[in-house]
Design a protein that fits this description.
CATH architecture of the largest domain: 3-Layer(aba) Sandwich
CATH topology of the largest domain: D-Maltodextrin-Binding Protein, domain 2
Protein name: LysR family transcriptional regulator
Family: Belongs to the LysR transcriptional regulatory family.
CATH superfamily of the largest domain: Periplasmic binding protein-like II
GO molecular function, one term: DNA-binding transcription factor activity
Number of helices: 12
InterPro entries: LysR-type_TF, LysR_HTH_N, LysR_subst-bd, WH-like_DNA-bd_sf, WH_DNA-bd_sf
Distance between the termini: 65 Å
Number of domains: 3
Strand order of the largest sheet: 4-3-5-12-6
Keywords: DNA-binding, Transcription, Transcription regulation
Number of strands: 12
CATH class of the largest domain: Alpha Beta
Largest sheet: 5 strands, mixed
């Protein structure tokens, strides 16, 4: 089978519309000699003269007239497919988007984001997936469309956008001594803590800071998710962590209290990541905008 050169169809459409080699060349921003060579290729490919001399002009052959409407429709459709997307009507969107995020973010973002999407784009489905895909090729193979969280493990081609910086705060049950009397580093280290790690790790940046001060905390419980930690805090004297702002809604709903951590900790940077193939997709772009606006609203309400 001969190789298909779609440029020939574009040239044929221009030649049939203009009825002139010079006019077709101007339309396609090329030279008349180049267009003459393209016409010669078309004649060989179609085994038809395509355009023939009639006085000082050119007229299409019966074969060219037979092809004209179909070629024009094909080229017009191709231009439509490749044209930049204009304004998107959310009500027309039909897509399922897989979003990976930890439950600390989901406790604050999932409900308002879902309400926003359902109100504007009822045909869109949000599928929240666990962090078990983190560090895998899920973004490349399409298992995950968007990732929200701390972006420190991405493939080099991945597109990112910062969403918010959030301070860490301590979370305790209502009535805990740390509420009325916020601790210094020594009292903070002396408390029993809850570790949150899907890999079961009991230490992190806080332990590094405490070690610099010659202190060490005890972590008798480690759970894989933030929500489980909050429920344990509610019924014990253990201490947990939460991102202020983006993670503040869940502790409030559970009647928990927060206190400032007495350590010099950098803010947690929350971002959004996606694969380049989704960069210009209308549904994907619209949803990324909704996520940014939802984060801004949630962080502002809790700030």
């Amino acid at each position: 089978m001969p190789r298909l050169d779609l440029n020939l169809l574009v040239a044929l459409d221009a030649l049939l519309e203009e009825g002139s080699v010079t006019g077709a060349a101007e339309r396609l921003n090329t030279s008349p000699p180049a267009m003459s060579r393209t016409l010669a290729r078309l004649r060989r490919t179609l085994q038809d003269p395509v355009l023939v001399r009639a006085g000082r002009g050119l007229v299409p052959t019966p074969r060219a007239l037979e092809l004209r409407a179909e070629v024009n429709a094909f080229v017009s459709h191709g231009r439509t497919l490749l044209a930049p997307h204009g304004a998107v009507d959310p009500g027309d969107l039909r897509a399922t988007v897989a979003i990976q995020a930890n439950d600390a973010l989901l406790t604050s973002l999932a409900a308002p984001l879902t309400a926003r999407v359902r109100g504007q784009a009822p045909g869109m489905t949000l599928r929240f997936v666990p962090e078990s895909h983190e560090g895998t090729s899920a973004m490349r193979d399409g298992t995950v469309d968007l990732e929200l969280g701390i972006l420190d493990h991405l493939d080099p081609e991945t597109r990112t956008r910062p969403l918010a910086d959030s301070e860490l705060v301590g979370v305790v049950r209502d009535g805990h001594p740390f509420v009325a009397d916020p601790p210094d580093p020594r009292r903070y280290a002396a408390a029993d803590h809850i570790g949150v790690s899907r890999r079961g790790r009991a230490t992190g940046p806080i332990d590094d800071r405490l070690r610099e001060l010659g202190l060490q905390r005890r972590v008798p419980v480690t759970v894989p998710g933030y929500a489980a930690a909050l429920f344990i805090v509610r019924d014990t004297d253990l201490v947990a962590l939460a991102p202020a702002g983006l993670g503040g809604r869940a502790p409030q709903l559970l009647g928990l209290s927060t206190f400032p951590i007495p350590l010099d900790l950098p803010p947690v940077s929350i971002g959004m990541a996606w694969h380049p193939r989704n960069d210009r997709d209308p549904a994907h772009r619209w949803l990324r905008r909704q996520i940014r606006e939802t984060v801004r609203e949630v962080a502002g309400d809790q700030g």
